[in-house]
User: Which sequence fits this backbone?
């Protein structure tokens, strides 16, 4: 698959001022980092009335370019950018508190992040971002200014001005040949859009010269400010190429069928632990260290299935980025690999399904302990903008000391990976219907609440042995299902805990818990608001009763109308 190619030029001068309080920087990384994080172009204009405008501008530009690439690859550009800018703004604000009133560290800031087939814009202040496409020049940002008089404007928003800053964000699909310009007000206040377009079009093959010429022309037109300009030309997009994509997936062949005693690249097979039509898991011992591990191999049934192989690779990718005591640890390879497989820690225990068979009537505290640990593990996924999407008893291991480990990342949806164009569909649900949230059938976007639904079903089944709606959901049955209170099956479940289970399992995702911590709290401590009759509409609490009541009311109304009609005639 071809890589993103961008030619960038930039130029900055202090102009008529004694110091240059503008700053700009760009970075186009190589290889996987360009694919996973993209390229960055950033510009800032330190507020001249502030005591340290220059330092603020430099800190924003250098800090963003550095810190953005330190954020998790699994995060979306939007999440990464906002987190970095939020931290930078708080730092600037904190530094400015030691200075005289109105003399803080203030700066404008605008940045482009080019990732795959999309450009992401972040903007604060009155620096500008333009796009030249098919001969049309368009300003993509809005100046954050307020006018004190007919001739004088003031910044209404800047980095470092307050503890919290509102950051404009937008994303746009890229086209080959798109050309982007970032300018400070010392440039665009002294050039017409016609002049900008003429200069850029005449020098579009030379971005550095175009940036210098725009700065030079602004000074010639009377600019009294610092002048800075950046030009970014999108030369090539990473268009998904099926042949290249499939060739990359086929670099590592599937390993041969493994049996006890066989050695695969330093790992001796002890026995098979699990096999399905999708994969095999073996208990192995590392011949160098003597350490026991699990080795997972793909099923030969999918040897020609590019979507499956891509998912298997991302299963390891996701596992290696999560570090949590309640999530299975994926081991970083220490030897070159000649086959497609990966190695994880070995969990000595049983899965939750086996545990439930052995504990058909667990205590409330046992259920709470397991669910709390599951939530702690799932929270590690959510912090990295990942959805597990296949939380079920078979994918949760219980150790001999009662610890919990979430396993199997084959259905995990990784937000950052979803932004990367590919000739296959990624992130499709592969989970089990019994525990899948309703939105997977209705086409609604999955979210953290989707995993919370699955956890709610897990807790319900542990306490009752059944599913909250009597069976797996489908799009056709969503309007007819009714939540069966857990306490009707298991009288030991308190009504307040049952109310928490019901909220976690709601059909409407927006009426579910939004945070795992809230659910954990409500299954341990009564939440009185959940017990209020007004908290949930009757149509959701008891749809059968609702429709019976509505039908009866309509019938009575009709009878009353007939009676009045007959009386009047």
Assistant:
């Amino acid at each position: 698959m071809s890589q993103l190619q961008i030619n960038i030029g930039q130029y900055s001068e202090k102009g008529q001022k004694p110091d240059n309080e503008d700053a700009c920087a760009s970075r186009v990384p190589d290889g996987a980092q360009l694919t996973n994080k993209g390229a960055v172009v950033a510009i800032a204009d330190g507020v001249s009335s502030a005591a340290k405008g220059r330092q603020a501008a430099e800190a924003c530009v250098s800090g963003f370019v550095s810190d953005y690439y330190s954020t998790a690859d699994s995060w979306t550009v939007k999440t990464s950018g906002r987190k970095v800018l939020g931290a930078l703004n708080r730092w600037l604000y904190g530094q400015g508190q030691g200075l005289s009133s109105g003399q803080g560290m203030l700066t404008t800031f605008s940045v482009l992040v080019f990732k795959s087939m999309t450009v992401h814009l972040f903007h604060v202040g009155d620096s500008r971002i333009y796009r030249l496409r098919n001969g049309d020049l368009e300003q993509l940002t809005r100046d954050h200014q307020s006018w004190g008089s007919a001739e004088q404007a003031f910044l209404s928003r800047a980095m470092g001005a307050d503890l919290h800053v509102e950051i404009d964000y937008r994303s746009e699909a890229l086209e080959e040949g798109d050309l982007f310009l970032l300018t400070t007000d010392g440039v665009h206040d002294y050039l017409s859009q016609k002049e900008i377009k003429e200069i850029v079009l005449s020098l579009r093959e030379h971005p550095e010269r175009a940036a210098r010429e725009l700065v030079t022309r602004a000074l010639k037109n009377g600019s009294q400010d610092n002048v800075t300009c950046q030009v970014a030309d999108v030369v090539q997009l990473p268009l998904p190429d099926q042949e290249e994509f499939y060739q990359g997936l086929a670099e590592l062949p599937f390993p041969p069928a493994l049996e006890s005693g066989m050695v695969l690249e330093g790992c001796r097979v002890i026995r098979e632990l699990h096999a399905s039509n999708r994969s095999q898991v073996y208990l192995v011992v590392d011949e160098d260290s003597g350490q026991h591990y699990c080795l997972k191999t793909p099923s030969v049934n999918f040897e020609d299935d590019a979507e499956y192989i891509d998912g298997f690779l991302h299963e390891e990718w996701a596992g290696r980025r999560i570090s949590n005591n309640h999530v299975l640890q994926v081991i970083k390879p220490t030897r070159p690999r000649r086959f497609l497989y990966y190695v994880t820690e070995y969990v000595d225990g049983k899965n939750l399904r086996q545990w439930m068979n052995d504990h058909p009537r667990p205590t409330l505290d046992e259920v709470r302990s397991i669910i709390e640990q599951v939530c702690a593990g799932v929270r590690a996924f959510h912090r990295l903008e990942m959805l597990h999407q296949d939380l079920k008893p078979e994918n949760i291991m219980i150790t001999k000391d009662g610890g919990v480990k979430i396993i199997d990342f084959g259905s995990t949806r990784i937000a950052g990976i979803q932004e990367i164009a590919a000739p296959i569909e990624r992130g499709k649900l592969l989970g089990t219907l019994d525990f899948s949230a309703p939105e997977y059938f209705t086409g609604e976007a999955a979210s953290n609440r989707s995993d919370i639904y699955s956890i709610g079903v897990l807790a319900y089944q542990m306490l009752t042995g059944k599913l909250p709606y009597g069976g797996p959901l489908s799009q056709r049955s969503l309007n007819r299902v009714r939540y069966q209170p857990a306490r009707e099956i298991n009288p030991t479940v308190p009504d307040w805990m049952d109310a928490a289970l019901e909220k976690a399992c709601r059909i409407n995702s927006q009426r579910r818990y939004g945070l795992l911590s809230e659910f954990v709290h409500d299954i341990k401590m009564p939440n009185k608001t959940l017990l209020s009759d007004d908290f949930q509409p009757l149509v959701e609490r008891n749809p059968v009763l609702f429709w019976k009541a509505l039908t009866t009311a309509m019938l009575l109304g009709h009878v009353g109308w007939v009676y009045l009609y007959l009386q009047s005639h």
